[in-house]
Amino acid sequence: MSILTLPTPLLRRLVLVPSEAQPTRAWLRTALSLHADTSEWLARGLVLMPPATAAPREPIFGVTFVTEPPTQAVAHTTEAARPPTAVGHLYLGVEQMRGRLWGVTWPNEQVEPLASLKVAGPGLHTIPLAPLSSKETSDPDGLSLDRWSRTIGALGSAAVWQRLVNLHIALVGCGRTGSLIAVALARLGLRHLTLIDPDRLELHNLGEMDAVVEGDLGRPKVDALAPYLIAAAPAGHLTVQAVARPITDPDAVRAAKRADVLIACVDNDTARLAMGIIATLYHKPLLDIGTGVLRQPGSGVGTPSIVSQPSGLPPRTMGADLRLILPGQGCILCVGGLGQYGPAVNELMHRRPTPPPAQEWHQQRAGSLRSLNTLASGLALQMLNDLVAERLTASTWARLEVDAIGHLTTAYPVLEPPTAPTCPLCGRAGLGDNGLGWG
Ligand SMILES: [Zn+2]
User: Fold this and answer.
1) Domain 2-134 belongs to what architecture?
2) How far, in Å, is the centroid of ligand 1 from the Cα of 193?
3) pLDDT, tens only, 221-275
């Protein structure tokens, strides 16, 4: 096994080379320290030279700055072109590969991967290096990244994609909007997904849900979705835990606690409040999505004038509230609030279902549209992308509204904590605007 040890100042100097104006060749002067089963190469200095200059006449590591993971073929090309004094080569990722490292040495005229990089300095980090792949590009599991090359390009770096897909996400509510989110996460390359929903698939779900077919009728939604999601991901890549229980059930709470991020696509405030409590207690970022198509004039977010309804159609307005709530930055109660807070507390405390509303669902709600659910799930996933990429750094509430003539507005209500009283759930000073309208 071979390792390379670099003092921190030398590593710092090395990573700055690509930002320098003049193109140079970079070499690390090295010395060898032999242990029982390890060859430890000690980097002793950085040599920078104009491109055409001959390599130093001492043991050196070549350095190449790469924007793609190097393959074995690349290493063999490097070997063929290496100067006589080169004993190894280091590949440092830049741009979308920033933060990634690979290395090879050439003992006995064979290309051998460098096992790790030791940083001799604060933190005493030992960084295991990824092996070179025989494929053109691969992630650490050896999967081709070509599948996600466009996603990685749009996210800005492979590191962001890696962080995203390594998150364990618990998705609570696997119906119309939840199924869209689940399929998108499976195709994105997520590795660990927990699905929580007690409901069984009914005929009226088939019009808007994704990834289910008539043969699934009567099955728990989570059990119907899981095999489709696993098939949508590369073989063996995605594990799905299906929990056909309500989020208030101890099994579901245990499953949610294990996740890194909670996504709520639930259709009632009792489940939403339970999610808010779990997120607050266990420091989980919570992405809450609520959509609604209502038989009433809109609130006119972003459109102060009341738009008249087209003749011959009942009144309609529709929209969605998306809330990304970060630990320590409010909770479900003080970031937007709950429309049915009192009944939700009552139901959670006494395990008594809230009495059905006086009006039938179709008198209040006009149904569900995949177009609206897709808009909401798309913006929610974008919030998740931007959270992982550190573009989005604060709790955020987005409200989508489609007016009577089909114009979409997006508003981001300001989340300023007003004065007292303190939030009863997260302790944040002041209760937020209790103005949540959708879902
Ligand atoms: Zn709160």
Assistant:
1) 3-Layer(aba) Sandwich (3.40)
2) 27
3) 999 999 999 999 998 899 999 999 999 999 999 999 989 899 999 999 999 999 9
Domain with CATH 3.40.140 in the chain: 2-134
Over residues 370-394, mean pLDDT = 94
From-to residues of CATH 3.40.50.720 in the chain: 158-411
pLDDT in tens, 96-118: 778 788 999 988 777 788 999 98
Ligand 1 centroid–CA 422 distance in Å is 8
Would you state the structure tokens that stand for residue 343, as one six-digit string? Answer: 């009944």
Cα 164 to ligand 1 centre (Å): 26
User: Does residue 90 contact residue 66 with C-beta atoms inside 8 Å?
Assistant: no
As a whole number of angstroms, the distance between CA 11 and CA 274 comes to 48
Whether domain 158-411 has CATH 3.40.50.720: yes
Q: If you measure from the C-alpha of residue 97 to the centroid of ligand 1, how many angstroms do you get, rounded to a whole number?
A: 38
For 281, the enclosing helix (H) or strand (E) is helix 269-281
Distance 371 CA to ligand 1 centre (A): 31
Sequential DSSP letters for 41-107: EEEEEEEEE-TTSPPPSS-EEEEEEESSPPBHHHHHHHHHH--TTEEEEEEEE-GGGTT-EEEEE-G
Strands (DSSP E) found in 357-437: 365-367, 396-402, 408-411
